[in-house]
Every structure is written in structure tokens, then in C-alpha cells.
Amino acid sequence: MLMTAVPYFERPLFFFDQSRFRRALAEQPHITVFKDAISAANLQFNRRFVEGEDIRTLVYERALFIDCILHYAWHKFDWPDSISLEAVGGYGRGELHPASDIDLLILHRPEVLAECEEKIGQFFTFLWDIKLEIGSSVRTVKQCIEIARNDITVATNIMESRTLVGDESLRHELLQQSAPNNIWSAEDFFRAKWDEQIARHKKYNDTEYNLEPNIKNAPGGLRDIQTISWVAKRYFQVRTLKQLEGKGFFTEEEFSLLYSGEEYLWRVRYGLHMVAKRAEERLMFDYQRELAKLFGYVDEEGSLAVEQFMHKYYRTVLSLRELNDVLLQFLSEAILQKGKCKSVVSVNERFQLRDNYIEATHTYVFEENPSALLEMFVLMAQNPKIVGVRASTIRLVRESRHLIDDEFRNNPKNTQLFIKLLQYPGGLVEQLKRMLRYGILGLYLPEFGQVTGQMQHDLFHIYTVDAHTLKVVQNMCNFLLPSAKEEFPISAHIMTRLPRLDLLYIAGLYHDIGKGRGGDHSTLGAVDAEIFCKRHGISARETRLVSWLVEKHLLMSSVSQKQDLSDPEVIRNFALIVGDQMHLDYLFALTVADINGTNKELWNTWRASLMRQLYMETKRALRRGLENAIDKHDLIEETQQAAIRKLGNSRLSESQIWEFWRDMGEDYFLRESVADIAWHTEAIAGHLHDEPLILIKKTTNRELAGATQIFIRTKNQKNVFVAAASALDHLNLSIQDAKIYSSNSGYTIDTFFVLNQDGKPLGSNPTLLKNIHQSLLEELRLADNYSEVISRRTPRRMKYFAMPTRTSLSHDTVRNCSVLEVISPDRPGLLACIGRIFMQFGIHLINAKIATLGERVEDIFFIVDNQGNPLIDTAVAENLQREIREQLDKRADLH
Q1: CB 475 within 8 A of CB 509
Q2: Is residue 164 within 8 Å of residue 74, measured between CB atoms?
Q3: Which residues of the chain have pLDDT under 50?
Q4: What beta strand segments (E) does 363-468 contain?
Q5: Separation in Å, CA 513 to CA 98, 417, 470, 547
Q6: Global confidence as pTM
Q7: Rounded-to-integer distance, Cα 166 and Cα 85, Å
Q8: Cα-flanking dihedrals φ and ψ of residue 299, to 5°?
Q9: Contacts for 168 with CB less than 8 Å, ≥ 6 apart
């Protein structure tokens, strides 16, 4: 390339010395010179970003720099007159983030393609060689139009094209032929883009609040801003949104919000591309922490830096989602309803329906009657045919929401309206979402405003507090649907007999509202719920119920997953706290809705069975009367007699049955079902060799439905638990519960309840069951000399939650053992690791309660020392716990 023959790039680049670049091209290999220039520019842009330079300057200057690079790359070749290089997409708008694609279109006349084809290939090859991430196409104007007629994306790209170098008349011709009067009228374009947005939002669960949000495509993201921009520019026939000022499309406040929101998301996206070193659009956990640090956030008491950063992000996208609603509705009215006869139906003197969209009857509705700010949502909940709110009215709501103050909140008319809203479950959550999006809910309930956009940085919750709360209330409403009778039979039945459903919804709204303030969120929320109830005229008795539900909302889940439900004392103690059937019903519905609203994956057949068992056993205890507790010995005798009857056809004599049973302790008959006792007894009687007895089946116990039950009986063998846990872990099976017994004659009996790694039943695949059986046998043969714990990779998402393992040790005077609780992020091989530590310390495991909550475990182990005594030596107890904490946290670091 002769640089003297190549024109300078005309637009000024103050940070790039073209003369020096041109001299280097004359003296050095071109690929090296281009790559060095790009690398130096990237370093310079990144430094300026870290130093806090204006993001728009950086994004525009990066695009300008690439314009210059492409200018010189283009001029390496001799081109005819009838060809041009066009920037399209985001690059066409003059915007470029660090790792964004550089979308290029070579536009040409049909007659020049033959002489240019080889050069075009060489041009693109050169761009790839200098490491530019390009998207490319080569077309005539006619070809572009033909594709654009059926492809809205191509039509959109054409709108935003700009000529980098070459024959500009080609683009002018392209824009003329692709104008709305030729293809994609403003109406068709709007419909297509709105449908595109609906589908895109659906892909991201129609929420701004995903745990690892996509900053480009999720609701409230950059694509929402671009959608507004594309439709508005198509309709008003302008090149930039700035040109829309004065056309009545934006208010000054709206334009400012859109502009600042875009700047914030650009800054986040720029930083994300920079730390990821690729075109990453998802704010994944490993980047959230890096960006929080990059943007200057620091950990504070009760609030991690990453939570502060994500709180700002979520509030920004919520505001942009609200603005998107307003502006798209405005465009819908301007484009789709323009010139059409509108159906106007009066609702009352404050509101009317225009084509099934609610609107204020005049500009001063909210100013003259502030209560209408709540009334509007009640009217929409009452009438499901109302499609939405007209843009002009949304604007009035946003301009009038400052009227919601303490006087407004305490006005009986307004409190009655809010309670009335809670009485329409069919439309309740949709209206609460609208109230949240339009800024009403957080003002009417300031305590709810505090948790809006508040992230819970763990893997137990997958939504922010406010999004989770609305999902919980939605789940409650869904229990009323016919489909709930199959998936949630008890909850569906309960909902038909609760005296007041709105009390349940209030408990749902307040159950997590105390989060983020420090202290016990259940206790704080109970106080807030009580204040709400008193303000809303709810009776003292019902207020106590709601406050109790909020305070105890974690109780039922905890008892069902962490305590032994076969122990009559556990049921009695829980029943004493609940007190009566009504409290039990409300608490059950709240708990099921909460678990499903926390993380849908938490609700599997196993967890449902535990909840059902606790509910049914407590219901029976309440019917019997708490003063008539079941005698443990009576229950054991009743179970034994039922099992003997069940074994009546087994050819086993009663003396043979008792020969096995005398060897077992009381716990066995308290915890095992009649069917399983009979199953075990018959199998043991027929097992005539020394090899471990292993039985596998899908549990027949209705209360424990869904899991696969694995029964292991071995004699005089050590480390059975750790060996079995390792084998099951190696098979990618998740242990949901474990029952462990030791007989007087040296037998160890372990029962494991397992699901697959997705929390689903294993089914009846004979090959899989045989593989499980064989793997357990092989592992048990090594158990006496067992020293190696199988490891697998920890899932990516689990690495970025810095929750250290916690342990506690207490004494169980009834069982005369120590009780060890371990709370830790779940990871492969965890139970095997703990079992190995028990082995090292000479600890005997006599029972275990396994609880996996999402990707966190809360396991309880009942343990004794070599002599069968509790761990009374404080030094040993502390060393044991420290070793568990260090080993588990070390395993997390290793993966």
C-alpha cells in the first residue's frame, strides 16, 4: 500500500496519530501495524474507563477509531466506484463496546461483483487476521430489500446504516427503497417489534430480576431502549432520538431517565466486556463481584458490595421497564389506533375505558382525588377485560405519585381500597406488579419500597426480595386454579376453607419484608405486618394470626427437612406451636408458596412428601388433642403387630421375626413404616451369605413418595456411611435423607433416600438399579480401608457465594448423643467428606437428617465416640468442627 495515495481519515482522532500509523505501514508488515494499533487503543480506552471517563465519549470514540482502521484496511485494495462499506447494527449507530461485533455490509451494484469478489474475500480475511470481531454480508440494494421485506432484523439494520467509505448513493437508494411507504409500514414495524419484545421478555421469565440478568435482552435492558428508539425513529422518520424533542413523544423527565438509564447500562456493559474479555451480556456471578469492585462499592455491615451494585442495577432496569411501558403504549396509540374510531365506555366520573384501556377522564383526576391512584388498580383487578393503562394516564400517575404520603396511607378510604384489591386473586398480582412498576406500591408500603430491587446473594433465592414476594403471592392465587388440585392437592383443598384469603396474601407480602435491615427478618417482618393490619382495620385476632405467620414462616420447612418426623415428640412440639387447624392450614399454604417462589427447583416430590407428612401427622395430633399424646411404647407395639400381620404370608414364623427384631432398637420401629419393616425382615431372613445385603426400590411409603430407597445391611464393617455416600455421589445421585441403625449383634443398617442430580425420581431402569447395586458392593468391599473421597467439579454458580461452612454441636439428652449441625454450600462428595472426617476422629454416626435447600445443605448428624458416649471433650468437639469447616471450604476452593 502506498500511503501517499491513500487519503487521510478526515474525522479527528485526538488519541490516534495517523501520520505515525501511516509511516509504520510503509515500513512494517501491515497485519502487525494494524494489530498493534488496535491493541494500544484498547489499552487506552480501558484505562480511561477505569479512570471514570464519560461512557458516551468512550463508546463513540471506540466506533470512530474502528471507522479509521476500516478506512485504511479498505484502501489496501482498489475498488470500483459502485461499491461501499456500510456500518450496520449498533456499530451503524456509531456505538461500539469493547467486545461487540463490528457489523459490516458491503453494498454494490450487480455489475461490479465479478471484479470485486476476490478483493472482498481478501478484505474480510485481513480484518479477521488483525483480530476484529466482524459480522459481514455482501449484497446489492435489491437483495437487501428482498431480505428485509421478510426479516425485521435486516430492516432495522438498514435503518441504522451509515457509509464508512465508498459510494454513498448506494445507501441513500437503500434507505429510500426501505422507507415505511415501501416496506414495513410504521404500523407493521411496530407490531413486529412489540411481538419481538414480548417473546424476548418471555424468554427471561418476564422479569427484570433474574439472578444472572442479561443486560442486553432481559426486560428493562438495552434492547428495550433500542426497541423504543427503532419504533419512534421509524414512525417519526428521524435518525436520532434527540431529534424527537418538541414532538410530544417524550416529556423532559422521560428523556432524561432514558438517557441516564442508557448511560448506566452502557457503563455496566462496557465493564462486563472488559472483565470477561469477550462479548458477554450476562451479569454472571463471577463478574458481578469484579464489577462491584471496579465501580467502587465496598462491603458494609449487612450489605455486600455486590448486593449494593446489583441493587442499583435492578432499580435502573425497573425504571426503564416502566418507561418502556409508557412509551410503547404511547406509540401504540399514535400508530395502531391513529384515525380509528375509539370505543369509549364510562366507568365512573374518574375513569373510562378507551378500547379496553383504562384512562383518567381528565388531567386533574389524581390531584383532585388522590385515592384514585389506588382505585385504578382495583378497577383493573375487578375487570379482567381491561388490557392496560393508557400512556397519558401512566404519565399522570408518575407525575402524581408524590401525593402518597403518611396522610394518604392512613386515610381509611385508601386502606379499604388496598384491602379490596387483595380480594381479587385473579388479577391481584398483575396489579401489584403494575403498582410496583409505576412506583405506587413502594410508596404506599414504604417497607416494601426498601426491599425493591434488593438482591439476595445466595443460590437459595433466584429473585430479588420484591420479585420473590410477588411470586409467593402469585403461587397462593394459583392454588385456587383447577390445575392446582393435581400438583398441590393439600394447598388447593386448604384454600377452599380458609376464612379469609386476604390474610394469607398479607402474610405473603410481609414474610420477607424485614430483609436487609440486620437482625431476624422474620421478627422484623412480624412487627411490620402487625402495623399494616392495624392501619387497615383488621381485627386484633386476625392481626395476631398474620403477624404469627410472618414470624413463623420458616418453621414448617425447617421442621419437615431437619427433624425426625417419625418421632411423636417432634410432631407434638410442632403441634403445640401451631395450636389449631386454622394456623396449620395458613402456615402450610404460606410455606408451599414460599418454597416454590424461592426457587422452583426446590419443590420436588421428596420435599412435597416431607411437607405432606408433617401436615398430616400434625393434623392427627390436633384432632386427638395435644393433651392426649401418643405413648412411644404403644406406637412401637402397634407398628410391630401390623408388620407381623403383613408378614403372615411370608412363611416366617413369629419366633423367626422376633429373632431379627430383638436385635433392633426402638428408633427402628418408630422411624420405619410397616411395609418397610416387613420388606427388610423378609429379605434378611432369605439372605444366607456374608455379603452385604442391598435392597433398592422406589419407596412405597405415600408420605415419602418420589425417592428411590436404598437399604444396606452389613456386619462388623466400618465406614459404611462414608463408603455408601461416596458411591452414590460418584453415580451423581443426591441423598435426600438417611436413616442409620446399629444392632446389638454388630450389624449396621443404613437406609438412603436418593433422587437424581436434577432432584427427580430415578424411575425403574433395571440397568441403572443394577449399576447402583454393583457400585455399592464394590465400595463396601473397600470400606474397612476406606481413605479416598471421590471428587467431581463444583458447579460454576456455586463458586461465587462466599458463605463459609458453619457448624454447631449440642447434646441430646434423650438419645444420649451429640448433635452436629453443618450448614454449607452443597458440593459433590460433601457427605463422603464429612463421613471420612468422622472416621478419622473415631466418631460413630447413629443417625442423620439430610436437608438440601437449593444448593445449600443443612445436615444434622447424631454422633457418639468410640465408647458410645456423647462428645464431652470440648477440645475434641472443637477440633472436629474446625476440621469439617476447613475441609469443606477447602473443597470449594479446589473446584
Answers
A1: no
A2: yes
A3: 787-795, 798, 894-895
A4: 388-389
A5: 39, 21, 12, 12
A6: 0.79
A7: 6
A8: -65, 135
A9: 84
